[in-house]
## 1
Amino acid sequence: MRFIKPYVLLVIAGIFLLLGYVYFSFFSERLNRCTDVVAVTPWLAPIVWEGTFDAVLIDNIYKPMNLTVATTVFAVGKYVRFLQDFLETAEKHFMVGFHVRYYVFTDRPHDVPSVNLSQGRHLSVIQVPGSNRWQEISARRMEIIQTTIERQIRGEADYIFCLDVDSKFHAHWGSESLGRLVAVIHPGYYEQTRDRFPYERRPASTAYIPMDEGDYYYGGAMIGGFVEDVYTLAKVCRTRFEEDAGNSIEAAWQEESHLNRYLLDNKPSKVLSPEYLWQDFKAKTKEVKVIRFSGVIKNYADVRPNV
Ligand code: UDP
Ligand code: MN
């Protein structure tokens, strides 16, 4: 029996080592570079990420339409303290070059800061009742948005965005965000599977979503679209919230839960990536190239009427 010479074995082992090295270095480099994002929903609505649109081109389409964008923001109780930064940063980054009408809802109209607004931008203060339960303030937003659209916004704007006040703009948020019904993927759940989403899971609630249903977990801090589409959304969510209240049930995340149920049945025509709703306490991830709007870090005990 003839033995293979040791040096031949060494050469063979060397070749395998080299091949293994080439393969793994190529593979791991691919892994490191893998920051691709999905830019379309299964129902073919765009998911807006940096790099998927041409801001100048989109602006050139929308600007000649002479649109007005309503922006509602609630600053009830101590939340008035967030208004200054919210408005100042919105003036720098939000729908620049468009007509913008801010609607500030507050129980403290005298504490609304005076912020210099660019030409074509207006601010109205609308007095609303205070409350000693943040859940109620948060929940009543839908009702107030509904009634204010009926009374005022309908005749004054084409599109509307409803935003959380405890936030700041950090980069461009423009006409790429316009659409019939626009929702944002919650930054805490864009990497999770749907069984992990904090949807309302009790069938007794009208916001109930079974474990095997759901597209995305949408953030309640931003909802947008045509005034009429957001009106219907607000009206339906408000009605369901009240129906639940009548049955002594409050959905897990109040209006965010109802919003998620509504958007499951009424698919958004455009979905904004978490670039449009980040959280300051959350470290930036590889996929997020630009943070456009982000919730500030707040001391809940300090700003909320109850904890
Ligand atoms: N809000 C308010 N006063 C309150 C509680 C809430 O004005 O006492 C409004 C405010 O616009 C806030 C939104 O409701 O941005 C949602 O509440 P919060 O930001 O506390 O919820 P979170 O983003 O922490 O889930
Ligand atoms: Mn918030």
## 2
Amino acid sequence: APTDYQAKPDLLKGKTILVTGAGDGIGKAAAMTYAEHGATVILLGRTEEKLEAVYDDIERAGLAKPALVVMDLATVTDEQCLHLAQGLAEEFGHLDGLLHNASLLGERRPIESATYAAWQEVIQVNVNAQFVLTRHLLPLLQAAPAASIVFTSSGVGRTGRAYWGAYAVSKFATEGFMQVLSAELENTSKIRVNCINPGATNTSMRRTAYPAEQPTDNPSPEDIMGVYLYLMGDDCKGVTGISFDAQ
Ligand code: NDP
């Protein structure tokens, strides 16, 4: 099963992979793991100091020199994404992987009392930003021999749950976006598009969402990297349109 996938040490050698939300939690672990398997990673996130810390960890480990992109997905524009794509085209020429990992938990409360502003922010970060980034990065992904786009879902993106509001709706939208894009690209390109549901993982988002849990009862981000590696490497060429569980 992809969950206990054992990656070759050089699985991602020569590949360039962009990770959103790379400064913390699962995104940070994925960026580090991809770099450890040979990839040049592009670290995208909103908090510069966190991205710099990951950048330094990668450099200190003597891995391929990463790139750093400070971008707030809550306010990101079409122009910013176009500019990002142009910069990456100049520096790398193509993109082998795109991990949409960043997301916002938002408020968990009944729809009856939810606020429109909080709703819009979650949908903006978790859905709209994925669209605008993907839209402008597609040409770079098309330019790679066999690129992989990976979205991040959740259990509440497959079955709705009371009080999970915009977050749950955004994860259903993410599953839908993955399916639409996968279907569009299936016969016309070598890009595969899939989804990962990480499952309960010990990160700051998890600790906020489940304050009563003992954090260390959940696996750490490093423990769930099998599927993250599998989907970025050439062992899963041709696999598309699937929503995986990381645990
Ligand atoms: P974290 O909150 O630890 O990390 C989320 C990352 O997204 C952070 O790096 C954060 O940046 C970034 N981010 C949030 N808002 C923005 C923004 N406006 N612009 C740019 N970056 C932003 O969460 P996890 O690592 O737990 O979550 C990773 C993914 O996994 C998410 O999509 C989440 O929904 C999903 N998931 C997680 C589960 C879990 O148990 N942990 C379970 C199911 C799904 P910053 O650090 O600067 O705030």
